[in-house]
Amino acid sequence: MLDIKDLYISQAEGNNGRMAEVGVSQAVLVEPRGDTGRKLPQYIAALSATLGALAAGSMLGWSSPVVLKITQDNSTDYNFSVSESQGDWVSSLINLGAAAVCFPIGLIMDILGRKKTMLFLTLPFTLGWLLITFASNVGMLMAGRFITGIAGGAFCVTAPAYTSEIAQDSIRGSLGSYFQLMVTVGILFAYAVGSYTSVFVFNILCTLVPIVFGIIFFFMPESPNFLVVKGRHEEAKESLIRLRGRNYDVDGELNHLQAKAEDAKNNPVSFLSAITKKTALKAVLICYALMLFQQLSGINAVIFNTSKIFTSAGAAIEPAIATIIIGVIQVVATLVSSLVVDKLGRRILLLFSALVMCICSTALGVYFFLQDKHGVDSSIVVAMSWLPLLSLSLFIIAFSLGFGPIPWMMAGELCLIDIKAFVSSTAGTLNWLLSFTVTSTFNSLNNSIGSGQVFWMFAGIMLLGFVFIFFIIPETKGKSVDEIQIMLGAEPETTHTDKK
After folding, report:
1. C-alpha–C-alpha distance, residues 350 and 348, integer Å
2. In angstroms, what CA-CA distances link 360 with 299, 414, 464, 482?
3. I want to staple 333 with a disulfide (CB 3.0 to 4.6 A). Which of 267, 397, 446, 488 is the partner?
């Protein structure tokens, strides 16, 4: 879902006149004199943008502590009752809201700009939370969840796009992973605060998150690439200065951005021609497949069974504490991913993630199969009581290192600018629809074929994912889009003039 445009140039380097070919991203000249330019302003802008992801994370985690409370017969959190089936809809409606907005938001942010679009999203986010907070009936509560889903889904497109466009190639992966990191922080916030405060207080706190985001992000610069495409060159220069510092070769990067924008304007390529190129089709296949494997990995099944797994392991931990522990594991593992993704690379983290998740799902399947066959108190099940807790923890760590953050990064890294909005938006739509499908069918699938068999099914899917990653997905660490296009099958001599 990231939106990255790379250029390829020859640049004089150093005082001795040596020449070197270097890659340039849409937000950075990959440096003619080494990795110059200040990084701190880019980190600040990226973290500010991903406060929207924090709001989306709190939206995702909200249902875990709240729906359990409001569906109880003696609940006094709302002045109306909520049945279990209605509670399921309240939980899952955000997925439909997010799926509905992913495609149009890609077009909107190309018209209004990344910054204005994200600032505008504070309005539906705030409106949705106010409807949830002051709901007088179930319909109003569901409407609030649907609207917050729209805002959260839109942030899943705009925040990664903005972050990737302001980042230098050397820190692009780290800044790109901040999105998933802040989502997990938001989920942990919901688990921790929602479990130990009233629903009303929790809702008010969730309402404040997008408002705080809007206030902070208001002072951040717009994407330089967007400004150049719109012909606002002076604003683009000022944006680059704010992001890189005055000692950086701003004019050099700006000139190349302008040249590429002019080339794209003078040599238009139809969308049909762009999307049907061999490199584009391979990029689309990879982006969609990663979203498919992410949601069919069983991550929701594992999260839903957190309390059951902790109980099966004989851990005397109440459900609220168990979910908080899982939330902490997610945050720590995603933070580690953000630190190593530009050092180890995307491909190795995805391979590690798929392999470990496959092994853990197999182990969980074995445990629950034996539990169903021999009973909870059987000697073989008791002897393996340590297995589900270990498998759960390793599964969450592996997902957070690879399949959590990286699929959201790949559209921007693999796709050229003329198809990027379409691919990132439709990939996001596919992700949310798959999330809704898995969420709404897991319980019935579990009852029909057995929990052990369900986990084995997830293990099989991750095995296929491992094979797909090994043979199909290239390593994009530190590469310009031109270099990535060559890895996807483009002719080297044509990448200089391809429309970005």
Report:
1. 5
2. 11, 30, 15, 38
3. 397
How far apart CA 186 and CA 494 sit, in angstroms, is 44
What sign does the CA torsion over 384, 386, 392, 393 have?
negative
Mean pLDDT of 428-439: 87
Q: For the sheet with 18-25, list strands across it.
A: 6-13, 18-25, 28-29
Q: Residue 314: pLDDT band by 50, 70, 90 thresholds? A: low
CA 297 to chain centre: 15
CB atoms within 10 A of CB 387: 19
**Domain 270-500 part of CATH 1.20.1250.20:** yes
pLDDT digits (tens, 9 = 90+) for 241-300: 898 888 887 787 788 778 777 877 777 777 788 888 888 899 999 999 999 999 999 887
In sequence order, the β-bridge partners of residue 13 are: 18
| Whole-number Å distance between alpha carbons of 495 and 258 | 17
Which of 292, 322, 297, 321 shows the shortest CA–CA distance to 308?
A: 322
Distance, in Å, from the CA atom of 322 to the CA atom of 309, rounded to the nearest integer, reads: 10
Residue 295 backbone dihedrals phi, psi, to 5 degrees: -80, -25
**Rounded distance, CA 392 to CA 108, Å?**
40
Contact 51, 217 (CB under 8 A): yes
Burial 433-451 (b: 16+ CB within 10 A, else e): bbbbebbeebeeebeeebb
> Are the C-beta atoms of 498 and 485 separated by less than 8 Å?
yes
What is the C-alpha to C-alpha distance for residues 431 and 436, in angstroms, rounded to an integer? 9
How far is it, in rounded angstroms, from Cα 23 to Cα 308? 50
Task: Please determine, for residue 341, whether its predicted confidence score (pLDDT) is greater than 90.
Answer: no
Phi first, then psi: what are they for 390, rounded to 5°? -65, -45
